[in-house]
Design brief:
Layout (H helix, E strand, L loop, with lengths): L1 H16 L8 H15 L9 H28 L4 H18 L7 H20 L4 H37 L2
Helix pairs in contact: 1-2, 1-6, 2-3, 2-6, 3-4, 3-6, 4-5, 4-6, 5-6
């Protein structure tokens, strides 16, 4: 029975990894699966000690922080202002929410990216920036958001592999 549940837990973690494409908190769900495994099988998961959860939890939080910071730095590198960055963040959140019902949920990914661009552009234009400058800053917000999402996905993939190795040990 334990083997069947190990397969199910591993499969769920891989499926949760796919939730990144829907702009969902995938890494936190993966972390929750690891905590649940430790709770259900404490004797078999001796190597899932406090340090294991500190490392994986730290990586999950690092992924969230890097996604946020990369969007900020992307817009800033391309000349975005603080207000443009705020618009990019608000736009990414709104775009992910509004895009979620489309393309079987993948619209959230496109919505987040497009929202980062549109939000930054609108805020930059609203605060007196020239159209070319605002579009360049918005492009930076888009690139930063894409980079951040990619980093967070990569960290999630590592946590899945690291966690699965401990489930199957």
């Amino acid at each position: 029975m334990e083997t069947v549940l190990a397969v199910v837990f591993t499969a769920l973690m891989v499926m949760f990894l796919g939730l990144h494409f829907l702009s969902m908190p995938a890494n936190f769900l993966i972390m929750g699966m690891l905590v649940l495994w430790k709770y259900m099988y404490p004797a078999q998961s001796v190597d899932m000690d406090t340090m294991f959860f500190v490392v994986t939890g730290g990586l999950v939080l690092l992924g969230e922080a890097l996604e946020f910071i990369s969007q900020l730095m992307g817009a800033k590198k391309y000349g975005g202002s603080a207000k443009g960055n705020l618009g990019g963040i608000i736009g990414a959140i709104c775009g992910a929410i509004l895009g979620a019902p489309f393309f079987l949920g993948l619209g959230a990914l496109f919505g987040a990216l497009g929202g980062a661009y549109a939000g930054c552009l609108i805020f930059e234009l609203a605060h007196g920036r020239q159209k070319d400058e605002a579009m360049t800053a918005a492009k930076g917000a888009f690139y930063g958001k894409f980079l951040g999402m990619s980093i967070k996905f990569g960290i999630g993939a590592f946590v899945v592999v690291y966690g699965a190795a401990h489930i199957w040990s």
